């Protein structure tokens, strides 16, 4: 079961406290994801099983997940990342980030 709107709003507030612009807010979410999202975890992207080995903050303020399959690596925006069931520990922070971006 996912977080309620009230819980997501509280998480957004926690991640963005003391932020003055969107760039700082994205950094706040990145920090929360780094602290709480358990990696690695497996998921499926376009029908292909991949392992998410970590997250990165790009120079243009996007949070991306590093997907690995065999020797191939691909960064995917975390907003577009399909999540597995059961959800990995800390996935509620992805939900909070998606909630904030809306």
| Helix and strand sequence | HHEEEEH
Secondary structure: number of strands: 4
The termini sit apart by: 20 Å
Structural class: alpha+beta
Q: Which geometry do the CA atoms define?
A: globular
Give a short synopsis of this structure:
The protein is built from three helices and four strands. By secondary structure, it is an alpha+beta fold. A hairpin with a 5-residue loop joins strand 2 (48-57) and strand 3.
Description:
The chain is an alpha+beta fold and 102 residues long. It has 3 helices and 4 strands, in the order ααββββα. The chain is globular. The model has no long low-confidence stretch (mean pLDDT 95).
Question: How is the topology of this model organized?
Answer:
Blueprint: H1 5-16, H2 22-36, E1 41-45, E2 48-57, E3 63-69, E4 72-77, H3 92-101
Antiparallel strand pairs: 1-2, 2-3, 3-4
Helix pairs in contact: 1-3, 2-3
What tags apply to this protein structure?
alpha+beta; 102 residues; four-stranded antiparallel sheet; 36% helix
């Amino acid at each position: 079961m996912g977080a309620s709107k009230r819980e997501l709003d509280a998480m957004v507030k926690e991640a963005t406290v003391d932020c003055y612009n969107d760039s700082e807010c994205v950094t706040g979410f990145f920090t929360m994801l780094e602290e709480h999202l358990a990696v690695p975890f497996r998921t499926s992207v376009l029908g292909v099983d991949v392992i998410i080995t970590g997250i990165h903050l790009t120079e243009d303020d996007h949070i991306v997940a590093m997907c690995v399959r065999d020797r191939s690596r691909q960064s995917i925006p975390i907003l577009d990342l399909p999540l597995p069931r059961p959800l990995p520990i800390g996935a509620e922070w992805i939900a909070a980030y998606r909630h904030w971006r809306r």
